[in-house]
């Protein structure tokens, strides 16, 4: 069973205004764990650090202190360790309208992570993977050639979920 742990995570930003500087603490000693098959919600008012925490989890920001651990292994910030972490941990954006490029087909959106994470190569293998992902989120494989504006909001959200599943070993 996979476990993503956050231990005593802190993110501080140094703000400078002319000659003065101050520290803004965006994430303040946050700890939690998430097990496979569990759903966790993070709620809070605007400015409480939710987006910063998400950026830290996705390794888009470097923590000031604390640790992010996946399956008892501290997450590495570069190289093969980071690539494996990004294969195992994906983000599904809240707004499916903004997270899908309107100029690309659904096959492009789902095929790209399959190729980038080494799960498929060659057109036939990529398209087979795209069709499996669509079926996994209960969408018709014929949707692969459509563009995002041709889908409902719920269908777009399922495409975003399928894209997040693409790099995972179990989805191939």
Structural description of this entry:
The chain is α+β, with helices and mostly antiparallel strands. It folds into 2 domains: 3-75, Rossmann fold (3-Layer(aba) Sandwich); 96-171, no CATH class. 35% of the residues lie in helices and 23% in strands. The chain has helices at residues 50-57, 79-88, 96-99, 106-116, 123-136, 153-165, and strands at 3-17, 20-35, 65-70, 73-74. Strands 2-1-3-4 form a 4-stranded antiparallel sheet. A hairpin with a 2-residue loop joins β1 and β2 (20-35). It is globular and about 55 Å long.
Please specify the SSE layout and strand pairing.
Layout lengths: L2 E15 L2 E16 L14 H8 L7 E6 L2 E2 L4 H10 L7 H4 L6 H11 L6 H14 L16 H13 L7
Helix pairs in contact: 4-5, 4-6
Which descriptors apply to this entry?
single chain; 172 residues; alpha+beta; Rossmann fold; globular
Overview in brief:
The protein contains six helices and four strands, in the order ββαββααααα. The chain is α+β, with helices and mostly antiparallel strands and 172 residues long.
Helix fraction, binned, reads 25-40%
Could you give the order of the helices and strands?
A: EEHEEHHHHH
Number of strands: 4
Q: Which class best fits the helix and strand makeup?
A: alpha+beta
Low-confidence stretches: none
Largest sheet: 4 strands, antiparallel
* Rg, Å, rounded: 18 Å
Largest beta sheet: what is the strand line-up?
Answer: 2-1-3-4
Whole-Å distance between the termini? 19 Å
Overall pLDDT level: 90
| Overall geometric form | globular
Into which percentage range does the β-strand content fall?
A: 15-25%
């Amino acid at each position: 069973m996979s476990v993503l742990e956050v231990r005593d995570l802190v993110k501080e930003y140094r703000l400078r205004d002319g000659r003065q500087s101050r520290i803004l603490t965006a994430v303040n000693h946050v700890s939690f764990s998430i097990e496979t098959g569990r759903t966790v919600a993070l709620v809070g008012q605007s400015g409480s650090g939710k987006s910063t925490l998400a950026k830290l989890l996705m390794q888009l920001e470097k923590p000031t202190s604390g640790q992010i651990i996946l399956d008892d292994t501290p997450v590495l910030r570069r190289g093969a360790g980071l690539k494996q972490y990004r294969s195992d941990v994906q983000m599904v954006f809240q707004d499916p309208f903004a997270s899908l490029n309107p100029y690309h087909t659904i096959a492009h959106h789902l095929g790209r992570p399959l190729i980038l994470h080494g799960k498929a190569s060659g057109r036939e293998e990529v398209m087979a993977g795209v069709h499996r992902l669509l079926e996994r989120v209960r969408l018709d494989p014929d949707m692969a050639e459509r563009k995002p504006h041709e889908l409902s909001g719920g269908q777009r959200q399922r495409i975003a979920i399928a894209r997040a599943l693409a790099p995972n070993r179990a989805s191939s």
